[in-house]
Every structure is written in structure tokens, then in C-alpha cells.
């Protein structure tokens, strides 16, 4: 059985158009650091892994919200719905009000399609068009309006909010 670190490393190392081996190590180590810091971690069918870390919406701190990252599927299993099924399973287990993700629209814009006005929890140059959310409790984000957000632990490191080209 592969470890979360192995799944993350192999998935990112194979994505040579966007990432180098150094990125693969950075994200695999990031996953391990999140797990050590008690983020929710899920290995799906031995081939996919993701972490979900609590994020606080400052205007509604009672809400149970998470940010998804890193997410990885072993290269030979990609494009077969494993990531989607992992996210479905994680959402069942977490019982969250909303889940956020910063990432590529092609991977996330369909599933994470709830309009929202929640700011990044860390100062970043990342484009807001890539800051997606999915409300699981109806109305959570649509009734909220504007809010800042907060996060602690490894995910509060500004390095993890930079463009890949600026991380190495
Ligand atoms: C991104 C990744 C996790 C997707 O896993 P997967 O099991 O192939 O994804 P799925 O088959 O469940 O598809 C999930 C969505 O991503 C889209 N997608 C997946 N791979 C894609 C690709 N190479 N190009 C375009 N869209 C893609 C699917 O169409 C689907 O979108 P939909 O919800 O609109 O139908 C996987 O390719 C991976 O591990 N990549 C390397 C690491 C990485 O880039 N992680 C994400 C960082 S933002």
C-alpha cells in the first residue's frame, strides 16, 4: 500500500509540464506536515490521496469549513474519476458546511461552483478566479456576504499560496 507521501510525490513528479521533482517533494512533504498537524487525510482505494484542513470564516466562525490540498491520483489511475470519488467520500465523512480549494479551473470549477466572497486566509497574489468553494449546507456561503478568513498550521505558510514557479 502506498503512503500519502508516495501518492503525492508520484502524481506531481509525473506532471512535468507544470512541476519539477522539487515541487513533488514540497507537496508530498506538505501533505505529511498537514497530517502531523491533524488535518483530515484520506487515501482512496490505495491510489488517491488528499488533505482537508480547517479554515475559519471570520464572519461566521461557527461554520465547519475546510480547504482541500494537496490532491493527487497516481498517474496510471488519472482521468478515471478517482479524484471525484475521493472528494465525494471525503465530503460524506467530514460533514462540512463548505469546502474551499485554490486551483486550476479545469480540475475544480464544476464541483466547486458556489459563488462566494470569502477572502484568502493568507496574503497571496493568487487570482481570486481560482479560489473556489462548494457549500454542502445550503445557504452557507450564499447568505454570508463578504468575509475574511483565517487558517493556522502548515497551511498558514505563505509559500504554499505562491505560484509553483515562485515556490522553488
Ligand atoms: C488533478 C488530479 C488530482 C485529477 O485526478 P483524476 O482522478 O484524474 O480526476 P477525475 O477523473 O476525478 O476528474 C476530476 C475533474 O478534473 C478534470 N480533469 C482531470 N484531469 C484533467 C486534465 N488532465 N485536463 C483537464 N481536465 C482534467 C476532469 O474532467 C474532472 O472535471 P469535471 O468535474 O468538470 O468533470 C490528477 O490528475 C493528479 O493527481 N494530477 C497531478 C497532481 C495535481 O495536479 N493535483 C492538483 C493540483 S491543483
Order of helices and strands: HHEEEEHEHEEEE
Give the distance, in angstroms, between the N- and C-terminal Cα atoms: 29 Å
Strand content: 15-25%
Major β-sheet strand ordering: 1-2-4-5-7
Number of helices: 4
Helix content: 25-40%
Average pLDDT, rounded to a whole number, is 97
Per-chain topology:
Blueprint: H1 4-14, H2 21-36, E1 40-44, E2 48-54, E3 56-57, E4 65-73, H3 82-94, E5 98-102, H4 105-108, E6 117-118, E7 131-135, E8 146-147, E9 149-150
Parallel strand pairs: 4-5, 6-8
Antiparallel strand pairs: 1-2, 2-4, 3-9, 5-7
Helix pairs in contact: 1-2
InterPro entries: Acyl_CoA_acyltransferase (IPR016181), GNAT_dom (IPR000182)
GO molecular function, one term: acyltransferase activity, transferring groups other than amino-acyl groups
Keywords: Transferase
Write up this protein.
By secondary structure, this protein is an alpha/beta fold. The chain has a single domain, classed as Aminopeptidase, CATH 3.40.630.30. 26% of the residues lie in helices and 23% in strands. It has four helices and nine strands; from the N terminus they run ααββββαβαββββ. It has helices at 4-14, 21-36, 82-94, 105-108, and strands at residues 40-44, 48-54, 56-57, 65-73, 98-102, 117-118, 131-135, 146-147, 149-150. The strands form three sheets. The protein has a five-stranded mixed β-sheet. The protein has a two-stranded antiparallel ribbon with strand order 3-9. Helix 1 (4-14) packs antiparallel against helix 2 (21-36). The longest helix is centred in the N-terminal third of the chain and has 16 residues, at 21-36. It is globular, with a radius of gyration of 15 Å. It starts with a helix and ends in an 18-residue tail after the last strand. The model has no long low-confidence stretch (mean pLDDT 97). Bound molecules: coenzyme A. Coenzyme A binds next to helix 1, strand 4, helix 3 and helix 4. This is Acetyltransferase. GO terms for molecular function: acyltransferase activity, transferring groups other than amino-acyl groups. Residues 1-137 form the N-acetyltransferase domain. It comes from Photobacterium aquae.
Amino acid at each position: 500500500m502506498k503512503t500519502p507521501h508516495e501518492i503525492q510525490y508520484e502524481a506531481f513528479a509525473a506532471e512535468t509540464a507544470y512541476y519539477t521533482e522539487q515541487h513533488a517533494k514540497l507537496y508530498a512533504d506538505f501533505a505529511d506536515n498537514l497530517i502531523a498537524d491533524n488535518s483530515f487525510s484520506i487515501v482512496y482505494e490505495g491510489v488517491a490521496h488528499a488533505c482537508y484542513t480547517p479554515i475559519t470564516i471570520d464572519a461566521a466562525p461557527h461554520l465547519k469549513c475546510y480547504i482541500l490540498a494537496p490532491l493527487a491520483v497516481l498517474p496510471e489511475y488519472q482521468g478515471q474519476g478517482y479524484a471525484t470519488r475521493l472528494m465525494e467520500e471525503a465530503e460524506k465523512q467530514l460533514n462540512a458546511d463548505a469546502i474551499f480549494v485554490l486551483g486550476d479551473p479545469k480540475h475544480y470549477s464544476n464541483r466547486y461552483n458556489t459563488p462566494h466572497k470569502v477572502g484568502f486566509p493568507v496574503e497571496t497574489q493568487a487570482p481570486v478566479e481560482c479560489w473556489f468553494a462548494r457549500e454542502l449546507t445550503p445557504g452557507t456561503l450564499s447568505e454570508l456576504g463578504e468575509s475574511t478568513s483565517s487558517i493556522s498550521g502548515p497551511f498558514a505558510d505563505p509559500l504554499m499560496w505562491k505560484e509553483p514557479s515562485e515556490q522553488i
